[in-house]
Amino acid sequence: MNNLCVAHRGFSAKAPENTHAAIKMAMNEPFVNWMEIDVQLTRDGVPIVIHDYSVDRTTSGKGKVKDLTWQEIRRMDAGVWKGREFQGEQVPSLDEVLQLVKGRLKLNIELKTSGDMYPGLEEAVLDRIHAHGMISEIVLTSFEPKSLLRAKKIDPEVQVGLIIDAHPRDLLSRLKKIGCSFLSIGYSHLDAAFADELIRNGITPMAWTVDDKRSMASLAKMSPEIMICTNRPDTWGQLFLNKIAPRIPFWRRKWRGWF
């Protein structure tokens, strides 16, 4: 059970998703190797870390991200919805998150877009990644193949991965056409044979979103190469602490030469 643990939007089961609190809480978990975050653009072109296309659910404000400026979103409370102890949390910029995790966690950055909703999103995100010297520490993922192709055109060296909650027959060929070395897939669509096929073709699978021990253990049995994305990295840690499998020292963990 050598699988890598990916904290979904930080430690989102306990802290408000995609905030400093959730990120720091995930970083304090010894079993977390990666973190998944979502990035969109404000009206004035600032890449920020937020999941929904509107701010309504996770902040004290209202409106679509693309229609609001960075300063308008910055004034919103992004934590109190999760609990009073998180009051005052803010929506972070991508810059802030990159600075916080550099050298400590790898990042799966979802380019959160639909069609041409965010012209220039890929360029803006890659610009900030290069500014922090972190191109080797990230993978860009998206439900939108065109967004991944744009990212590869801007920087052919960037690692990209498709997000999908299905398993169409031509999925492997789609991944190859895009140039993916990563697949983010709803865990119910992954089985041992498909995981093995992906790995043989140089594509690392990540299963999402897995919060119970039984499903985690089942995926781990399929292959040690499957990355497991969870809102509950503490539950993943309990599998090790309960000696279901030996813990692998961090310095020995690898994902295709990225460690």
Automatic annotation (TrEMBL):
Gene3D superfamilies linked: Phosphatidylinositol (PI) phosphodiesterase
Span of domain GP-PDE: 3-240
Signal sequence bounds: none
Domain of life per record: Bacteria
A Gene Ontology biological process term: lipid metabolic process
Coiled coil region boundaries: none
Gene Ontology molecular-function annotations: phosphoric diester hydrolase activity
Protein name per Swiss-Prot or TrEMBL: Glycerophosphoryl diester phosphodiesterase
